Structure formats: C-alpha cells, structure tokens
Amino acid sequence: MEMRVDFHTHIIPENFPDFAKKYQNDKWNILQPTCSCGANIMIAGKVFREVTDQVWSPEKRISDMEKENVDIQVLSPIPVTFSYWAPIEEALAMAQFQNDFIAETVARYPNKFIGGGTVPLQDVKTAIREMDRCIHELGLKGIEIGTNINGKNLDDESFIDFFEMCEKWNVPLFVHPWETLGRDRLSKHNLMYTVGMPSETALAAGSLIVGGVIEKFPSLKICFSHGGGSLPYILPRLDHGWNVWPHLQLTEHPPSFYAKKFYYDSIVNDPVNIKFLVEKFGSSQVMLGSDYPFLLRETPPGKIIDDTLSLTSDQKRAMLGENALRFLNVPVSEFVR
Fold this sequence. Notes:
Elements: E1 5-11, H1 19-22, E2 29-35, E3 38-43, E4 46-52, H2 58-68, E5 72-77, H3 88-108, E6 113-117, H4 124-136, E7 142-146, E8 148-149, E9 152-153, H5 160-169, E10 173-176, H6 191-210, H7 213-216, E11 222-224, H8 231-244, H9 255-259, E12 263-265, H10 271-281, E13 286-287, H11 303-306, H12 313-327
Parallel strand pairs: 1-5, 5-6, 6-7, 7-10, 10-11, 11-12, 12-13
Antiparallel strand pairs: 2-3, 3-4, 8-9
Helix pairs in contact: 3-4, 6-8
C-alpha cells in the first residue's frame, strides 16, 4: 500500500500572539490579516512574507491534500518563529504556544497530521525541558531546529547536552536553514532563498560532521531540508580537506561516511538531483518533502520522485512515505484504518 507523507510542511496559528506589543520589541514577528484568506507576517513594520489561509487552516490543508494525493502532512513551525535571539522566558512562551497549537491540530485530525515541535536552543537546559514536554506529554514526534543558534554552528560545545538527550530519547531532528550566512549579500533577487539557504544547510551539516557530533552520537536521527542543500555536491571537497589536514581531524572516518547517516527531504527541483541523492546516500535516506504551503514548494508533492525514472517501485514507495514514518518512529499501522 503506497502512502504519501509530506515530511516538510509549515504551519502557524491564526491567532498568533502579538509578542511585539506584549514585550515591547519589534523584532517579534506578528501575523497581520489582509483578508479572510490571507495575511502578512510582519517584522518591525515590514512585510517578511505574504501567506494564505493554507498556513493556518487545517481544513484548507486537508482539502489541498485530497486534491494532491497526500495522505499525511508532518507539521513544523515556520523558522522565522524560532526566536533564538529573544530572552529565554519570552522564547519559551513562543515555543510553547506553537507546540500546543500543533499538538491540538494533530489531536483534531490524527489521521491527517503528525506534529513536530520547536525548542528555545539559546538555553539548552530549557530546550531539553521543552523537548521532554513535546515528546512525552504532547505526543509530538520530532523537533525542528535551525542551522545555527545566534551565529553558533551546531557543533558548538554548548549544544552537546541537547544532542545527547535527543539520542537518549530517540527524538528525530529536522534541521531547517534560517539566519543564513552572508545575509548582507543576499537581499537582492531573493538569493537568500535560492543560494543562501542551500549554503547555510551545508554549513550546518558539515559542522555536525567534522565537529565530531555525529561520531559522538551515532544513533542521532537528523534530516536536512532541501535535500541537504549544497552538502551532497561538496562532500568530495570536504573529504579532500579531511585528508590533507590530518591535524584538524576530529573523526575516525572522512565526512562522506557520516553523511550517509543523515536523512534528506526531496525538495531538489530536478529528477537528476534525486537520482544523485539516492546514488550518494541510498533510497532509505530520502523522503518526500514539499515545503507546503510556500511559493517555492513542489506541486504536487512527490512529483519529482514520481518523475525519477531510475527508481524502482519499492524505492518510490519508501521515499514517498515509509521512510518518513520510520524516521519519526511512527508505525504504518497507526494510519491504516
């Protein structure tokens, strides 16, 4: 039985709190309605992103899913709401508001949605407590994190305790780019989305590998958005650097060894790239993701996998649904009624 699970989708509550007013700080993003079916995400009085009711309405999502042959969406917060820059009490309030909303949405439509949460990683002890609540109280199945935390790469020693608990509790992590490197050079032409995000994702993955985090915690489950960004294509260069600078080596094996342990979503825009991901990492490590409901999303979800002629039917079935459920520790039987 083929089941389509869209691993990469984003959601925000329609009654999103006005923390800018509450905390007297215009760095907070707010949701400003433009009509009954649309709104702007605003930051400091400027439009950050235009959105439609697809981003908050589960009923609209389900309608789209039925039209586009998607059985399940995995819900994650929008990265701009990570709020790693904020005082920890305020950031925790934002995270909890979203986690509660996602858990409530899943509870209303348990056959349609799986929930992923967010944690305030600027304070690791608080992040671990909220992750505990997300997984063990709210029933969420994973945690979405950013590619850096206030400019710190993910191999920074301050995050070691967080990754240790993720491994101990078997919590899957979805790494999504935000606050991309070189932001001052990416403002024109929307290059932040098309060039900055893939580069930022590769930096995050590379730092986890060469920084020894994946070797230290070999059972960590991590999925990188957008097919890992530019990581798959620069792995030979990372390996070469590992070989020619032995005094910098922190791992037993070269980077490509550890990259095979990661998972990658399928938003790579070309069947040639899907074929490359499968050849590089195996079909078991790639899963359908569309980036619903944003403009750069794949429509319909899974088309690029369908169009990759080199894949077998078993590989396609795994990539379209089974891999995501396995990654999230969700038995297929939970959705077979």
